[in-house]
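Q: Hi! First time doing this. I have a protein sequence and I read that you can turn it into a structure. Is that right? Here it is:
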Amino acid sequence: MISLNPEPLRRFRPTVTYLLETEAHVYALAVSASVLLSFYPFILVMVAICRRILHWPAGEDAIYIALSDYFPGDLAALVRRNTLSSRLLPHSIIPVLLLLFTANGIFEPLEVALNRAWGVARNRPYWKNQLVALGMIFACGTLAMISLALTGVNEQWLSSWLGEHAVIQAWVKLLVFKIAALPLSILALFLVYWLLPNRKIDPARVAPVAIAVGLFLELLKYLNLMIWPFFSDKLKNDYNIFQHSVTILIWSFVAALVVLAGAEWTARHDRADPLS
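A: Yes, that's right. Below is the predicted 3D structure, encoded as structure tokens:
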């Protein structure tokens, strides 16, 4: 008779219990609301940089590839249609400042949640949190631009190599994006786990969980692709014109819970084995 080893279940049980707490949901919802507020301004700024400053169509196309990878359905097509008109792109520094302000809101509840996971009693003062958040935004934005650059450069090479084979081009472009984006996403998670809590953290402690969380989020994207045909119909029926906003909110909420679970796991094992 085959019996299951209960030890792995015991190790995951505290993390599952943490994810079922109201507090974790409040933090995840605060993060996802900030993602929703900053999502469209961020896309507009990135498109404006590629189109107006860099004059780089391949980089702009890489943005839509990334959107299609994270959000199946017609969300990427909707963004592409809305950004085709240059009137919608930012003409001044004000949208950029608005983006920085709303994006900073992502890291405020995230810092509080990570501090709670690590047992830190005191959060940073607001101005310090904003400075750290600003640095995180520039770091993550730089990683995003590197990912777009790698995808865009390879797209130009693929277009000359594959010629008119549009279907093959689309598949290879997506593969190149995934190869470029996954390590950079893991690096961004590592920076969040390492630098955002208001305490000193050994980088070696958070590197493995950043890798595990990055890979798990990648698997969630494939699960999302499988259930999307059924899920999208429900969102369309229930939310109508707000379906895309709800899509971003739900995906960000789930991703935030996964990130918080990784923090809880790491901090709990650090307390149990602080010297190893």
